From TrEMBL:
<dbReference type="Pfam" id="PF01553">
    <property type="entry name" value="Acyltransferase"/>
</dbReference>
<protein>
    <submittedName>
        <fullName>1-acyl-sn-glycerol-3-phosphate acyltransferase</fullName>
    </submittedName>
</protein>
<feature type="domain" description="Phospholipid/glycerol acyltransferase">
    <location>
        <begin position="76"/>
        <end position="188"/>
    </location>
</feature>
<keyword id="KW-0012">Acyltransferase</keyword>
<keyword id="KW-0443">Lipid metabolism</keyword>
<comment type="pathway">
    <text>Lipid metabolism.</text>
</comment>
<keyword id="KW-0444">Lipid biosynthesis</keyword>
<dbReference type="InterPro" id="IPR002123">
    <property type="entry name" value="Plipid/glycerol_acylTrfase"/>
</dbReference>
<keyword id="KW-0808">Transferase</keyword>
<dbReference type="GO" id="GO:0016746">
    <property type="term" value="F:acyltransferase activity"/>
</dbReference>
Amino acid sequence: MNPWDVTSPCTPRCVTHRLPEVSTLLTVRRWLALGSVLAGVRRGNLRPHARGVLDALGITLEANTDLLRVPGGTGTLIVANHVSWLDIVAILAVDPVGFLAKREVRSWPVIGSLAQACGTRFIARRELRELPAVVDGLADALRHGESVVVFPEGTTWCGGPGGTFRRAAFQAALDAGAPVRPVTFAYSQGGQPSTVAAFVGDDALLPSLSRVARARDLRIGLTAHPPLDPVGDRRELAARAQDAVRHTRIPAHA
């Protein structure tokens, strides 16, 4: 099985607003504010730009840390459950680290600009023959002190238990002797789990962005767990990271 090419059972039918949508006037104001933020995106400190995207869309980020990378001689492999393109924005708002992402992300509005500006590595997810080179390149980056985010479920899920963590990226952490930082994302509206931000199935980015721009009281919970030492084999390390992420995951209900 190609670890970069995974299919989720979630579809756009999973995605609903838990609260009434905001007014058309507020939605237009959010679009205008977002355009203003994106016009200023450039290489350098992406944290204010990412926070600006969240602010423009009326999203509250609740994070338990302001640093995802683990200080030390190597970079950190940051692994998280994957719900939405907003996961990327939220991570950059906390700690502007790099990403390993599918090649299509480069052309996405909003996310493509932010991803390229932080030095994201883009891969062709259906090309299994690229896997050894991707793992070697990731290990080399970690050895040289670069921290990289990977979504080891391989695709997005609307919530619930999610997918199995694929093991390939964890081999890079073992090869580089780099710590692994598990991260959990949970989305809510009005204090209740929400799927409105989920970007799943054959959904397109602009319709998803439009839903988010109309969402009321959307909040992103980002929980960074204690780092894991790079010991054992990749199967064991992936399982430990998955257990850490799932421990605080909030089931989403339509």
